[in-house]
Amino acid sequence: MINTKKLNNVGIIGWGGYIPSFRIKVGEIAKAYGKNGNEISRSLGVIEKSVADFDEDAVTMAVEAAKIAMIKTGIEPQKIGAVFVGSESHPYAVKPSATVVAEALGIGHEYLTADLEFACKAGAVGIQIVAGFLESGIIDYGLVIGSDKAQSKKGDVLEYTASSGAAAFILGRRKEEFLATIDGFYSYATDTPDFWRRSGQDYPSHGGRFTGESAYFHHVIQSTKTFLRKFKRKISDYDYVVFHMPNKKFPEKAAKRLGVVKKQLEPSLIVERIGNPYSASCLLSLCQVLEQAKSGQSILLTSYGSGAGADTFSFKTSDLLIEQQKSFMIEDFIKEKKEINYIEYLRKLGDL
Amino acid sequence: MYSPVKIWRSKKYKLAGSNPGRLLSFSIIHASPPGFKDQAPYSVGLVELKNGLRVIGQIVEAESLKIGQKMKAVFRIFNPQEKEGVIYYGIKFKPWKK
Amino acid sequence: MKIAVLGTGVTKFGEIWEKSLADLAKEAARQALDDANIEISDIDAIFIANMLAGEIENQVHLGSLIGEELGFNGPAIRIEGACASGGMAVRNAVLSLLSGEYRRILVIGVEKMTDYQSDQIGEALMAAADEEERVAGLTFPSLFALMAKVYMDKYKIKRSDLAQVSVKNHFHASLNPKAQFPFQITIEQVLQSPMVADPLHLFDCSPISDGASALVLANMNYVSQVYPCPATIIASAQSSDTLSLTKRKDLTRLISVEKAAKKAYQTASIGPKDIDFVEVHDCFTIAEIMALEALGFYQQGEGWQGAVKKETYLEGKLPVNLSGGLKAFGHPVGATGVKQVVEIADQLRDRAGKRQTSKARIGLAENIGGAGGSAVIHILTN
What we know:
The complex is a heterotrimer.
Chain A: E1 11-18, E2 22-25, H1 26-32, H2 37-44, E3 48-51, H3 58-73, E4 80-86, H4 97-105, E5 112-113, H5 122-136, E6 141-149, E7 164-172, E8 180-189, E9 195-196, E10 205-206, H6 212-230, E11 240-243, H7 249-258, H8 262-265, H9 271-274, H10 281-292, E12 298-302, E13 309-317, H11 330-335, E14 338-339, H12 342-349
Parallel strand pairs in A: 2-14, 4-5, 4-6, 11-12
Antiparallel strand pairs in A: 1-7, 1-8, 2-3, 6-7, 8-13, 9-10, 12-13
Helix pairs in contact in A: 1-2, 3-4, 6-7
Chain B: H1 4-10, E1 21-29, E2 42-48, E3 54-59, E4 70-77, E5 89-95
Antiparallel strand pairs in B: 1-2, 1-4, 2-3, 4-5
Chain C: E1 3-10, H1 21-36, E2 45-49, H2 53-57, H3 62-70, E3 76-79, H4 85-99, E4 104-111, H5 118-125, H6 131-135, H7 140-155, H8 159-173, H9 187-192, E5 195-197, E6 200-201, E7 211-219, E8 231-240, H10 255-268, E9 277-279, H11 285-294, H12 305-308, H13 325-329, H14 333-348, E10 362-369, E11 374-381
Parallel strand pairs in C: 2-3, 2-4, 9-10
Antiparallel strand pairs in C: 1-7, 1-8, 4-7, 5-6, 8-11, 10-11
């Protein structure tokens, strides 16, 4: 049972995203397997996905995203008291990604960390953890990153959407620095084996259609509904709604069931152009929304992680938001792309 | 396999304030050392950082390179082909955009 | 300074599968001793030049190994300075002889490179470069390619201008039976050969070779026989430059060669104009061009004119690399520096056969290590 706690001392003071340059079209992947790319693209609502380079991984992308957040905020790295990297593609099974990231950013040695994993919601959970530390005053600033170089079995339906990217947030407790406050959050979790990757296995497995109703939809809707009830809000209170995006259809369907209108959801649907970068998915969408939002607007975000769980967050933007909307835009990363074919894709994965 | 101690000691990432760099020379390597076979052909360059320091490193996402071009430092893996040893993270370069 | 060259020896350079490092060393040594008409027991010390045996064969302590091969148990030492090992061994022999501590020294430069794959050898050769360069996946061709790119951009020369150096050296090698590639090639063949590290093609680069070369050097006080035209070393100089290219001031200049050349000319009380013919370190075509400028034979940015205007051919005003150079005669790394002095000495004693230059009075040998981190120069006369 989580208490319905309105947070008073937690806000976003900076963000940064990173999307690798390469893209492969759903049609290009379909061609390799003799399938109809147009049909698949339409059913998933995805045109193309981002592909990391041969020498990139969840850590390199986390550093790139966090570097941008640090530059935009202008914060002194040593002030950060906690660093969390959520991923399902941490490069080491044992040895944290966060210490590499912290060292690369010059955060010094006095910070709290351990890596996070909960499928696609690992990054979002970082926000909850850091929020706890900030609210209680244990730290003044925290860095939260969701980053993934998503894996998928060759020929599996996941291959069309499993992509790469990272999103970083710097959170603080000084109201005068908030670009957006975090009002509160709620969590919902069950033991549901919809999608998993065993230790030592290169690729995840999943339960096919089981990943729909009992997994994604149940948890996203349950978490969102419970949050709204507990915090006495209505979905129509929100200017923007962001859901985790395994493809375009799932968030659209969940939105419909929750009474979310197109105007609220549309701006966050970058999945169409970059695919699903797992732990960075809902966080990159949040960055995208923050880049477009105006002062005094509210954002609802529900993450989803297989295994399974969903967390719902409520944000409210401030006047300061506009300062960080001018540079290193997610939209620029999305537009700055190089198309590759399936053979080049395999080379980038290190399979050729 | 690189020595973990040498990787730890070298910590090549402290290059704050280095962008944009200037490309002093470059070459596309076709005949590579054994560990780099999967990446060949690849570009390498000698870059002068904004703070004056000169660095030799790989150039990623290199389309057409020209001497004098602006370069951006990016955080990458030096030994992606290595599966057992410590991952050697460091700085490579990318053509500067914007 | 005056040090006598009593005897020279050089094996065929190339892919000599049947011979080991010790076999090659012995062959060259025997030739030099026979040429000098002395026994190994007349030798006071042996200096071995070699770069890679420790890297690729896990064999160091070559002084002892070669000593065993030759039946010699006096002072024996291995000298290493990357590709300048040969020149450094000659220089150290010269210094030891000048000190009076030794009377006659046998210098052997030897390298065995074909027992392993060429990419492994390429990687081993990078031991002569900086760690940052190795980690970034550079190779020696690419280090010189970085220099060539700047040179070509600054002085507006074309790839065909570089290629002319290879064509010339092959022409000279076609007159040299011991060369690895004793045949001519054309500019088209150079430009069509596979690209190694742009702008350098395969034929812009010296090959991987086995081979050995030897000299019997003596302090003038102990020269017992008088040759019709004895060859003597009248200058020996060495200098360095930074290991890393990132610390060089000008990528188009070989400062180590400039400094060593200045010292060498000073020692012999001569200038570039007095040199009749040269052996330079053409590990890559660009290296010959830069060497000719560093040695003062051409102005900065004009060294490429040598081969293009045929000035550095056998019949030209300053023959360069009559042996065929590193490109066409071969480049067993440790052997090269010694072989260069052997070539100069043989030319001075009128022993060069078809490639003999008619103007052999004063010759200069330039040997560098790595990307110019070390340079050794010798001047000889008859």
